[in-house]
Specification:
Helix content is 19%, strand content 33%. It is an alpha/beta fold and 243 residues long. The mean pLDDT is 96. The structure holds zinc ion (2 copies).
Amino acid sequence: MKLTFLGTKGYIDHSSRRHRMHASLLVSYLDRQIMVDCGSTWQKKIEKVDPDAIVLTHFHPDHAGGLIDGAPCAVYATSQGWDKVKDQEAFRNIDKRTLVPESAKTIKGITFEAFPLLHSTRAPAVGYRITAGRVTIFYAPDVVYIESRNKALEHVRVYIGDGATVTRSMVRKPKDTLIGHTPVQTQLTWCSKEQVPEMIITHCGSEIVASDERKLGAKLRKMAAERGVKVQIAHDGMEKVLR
Ligand SMILES: [Zn+2]
Ligand SMILES: [Zn+2]
């Protein structure tokens, strides 16, 4: 399985050379490639990526806003997700496919299993357990809490998690909604508890994007080592091959 971190930025205005595009992961296996999430910075740029399918975690603009002009391939999301955009003109002509939570679905040779996450009351979100060949990873770019964490992270080689905040809690309550992100620190503890050896941080917030990443990286590696886990901050274009 090859991972390409197409974009690594969260829902922030800030950007840098390393974090310019909204968080999106390209999963490749045997000449097929699937794009996970497609935020508004990807609008008019999907053809260049040329995915065989697109899979969405949720319908916030930094994850689905790039589909406003349609999509060149089928797009997968849960029925709870599609339900939230059923009245939106922009999504009308998309070839919509539905994924059932906690039920594995193989798309072009790569298996996806959606796990419901607590993240936003307005935009129901899932994380994906993704398997190709002998390798399984988990992708949760926006997360407060994984409901079936034990099952979701079982035998996972790499957990790719939410970098919106490093140590402070970030649960906002604009109007009657809740939008939240769990700190990287807590996600490293999940990895430790579920015996996941490595975390890669994506969906970076301003704490990472505006920082000196060498200094922050050292701090994170110490935090991870205390939990017996390895950690790395992804950047746009970063590739990783897992065998
Ligand atoms: Zn987001
Ligand atoms: Zn979100």
